[in-house]
Amino acid sequence: MRLCRICLRRGMLARFHARSPCRDPVGVFRPRTPLRCRFGVSARPTRFADLRTRLATGLALGGLTLGCVWAGGLWTAGLFALAAAAMAWEIRRMAGARDRLVGALVLFAVAAAVLVTGLTLLRWGMALLAVAALFAWLVERRGAALAAGQMLPGLAMACIVALRADPAYGFEAVLWLFLVVIASDVGGYFGGRLIGGPKLWPRLSPKKTWAGSLAGMALAAILGALFSRWTTGTLVEAVAPVSALAALVAQGGDLAESALKRRLGVKDASQLLPGHGGVLDRLDGLMAAALLSAAITFSRGASVFIW
Which of 132, 170, 234, 291 is a plausible cystine mate for 166, CB 3.0–4.6 Å? Predict the structure, then answer.
């Protein structure tokens, strides 16, 4: 036959041959019945499965934290002592510290420092942390950075317990601290998504932007000022810049933890919190903001709501 003036053999062209129809060609199998999940469970995980886990964990921890902070005393100290010990364990785990005896003593010292702060004064808890850091440095010989770094969660959580012990605005000061850190995260997320723009530090955190950072600080300043109005009955103007500064420091704590994880080659500090990663992943910004708030409060001898 001819195709475009070129002679071709009849069998070279792909087509259905009318002379020899084939009902079931050899080597071609009929499709099998597709597999289906039973009991109404989808074969693919839903896109909101992780979100449900995150929400459930967040609501449970949020309710527990709010109740313990409201109760005060040993309830607050006990909760943050557990959090400090968990974060110290995560730091040792990421750093590869394997000495179990030293690890147990470090976790005990970190938790005890927070409890001692709740019972007496912050300076005694700080003294206990200093002794424990010196002991870990002398025994493990892993460097001063690890020895001091694993004590940092104890110091930050002890600062929160000390803030709660203020008889005037202790409960409100801790709530304000949580509020500005959450506002920084929420404002940073939506500001980065809606505005975009240049990245803040692509090497450490590819998703953070300058617009998100400024939006987080602005939202923290607004909510912090409104919270002071609700707490004291008057709008305390100085709370707004302090709230913005606390949000900035919280973002710095988040970046510092990202740098630590990148250097150690880990994605999450641990998997203690389903859907969230580790305790350190959730409280890194709070730790930094707590240290700043405690420094401002104790250097002035008054709460952030009193100026």
Answer: 170
The predicted pLDDT at position 306 comes to 86
Amino acid identity of 246? A
pLDDT tens string 24-75: 455 555 556 555 544 444 444 444 567 788 888 889 999 999 999 999 999 9
Distance, in Å, from the CA atom of 230 to the CA atom of 84, rounded to the nearest integer, reads 31
Contact 124, 160 (CB under 8 A): no
132 closest CA partner among 162, 98, 155, 163? 155
User: What does the block give as tokens for 281?
Assistant: 């992943």
Which two structure tokens, joined as six digits, stand for 189?
């997320």
- Distance between terminal CA atoms of the chain? 100
Residue found under tokens 């005896």: 101
Q: HSE, CB side, 13 Å, CA atoms: give it for residue 125.
A: 29
Residue with tokens 């597709």: 34
Q: Torsion angle of alpha carbons 288, 104, 162, 292, nearest 10°?
A: -10
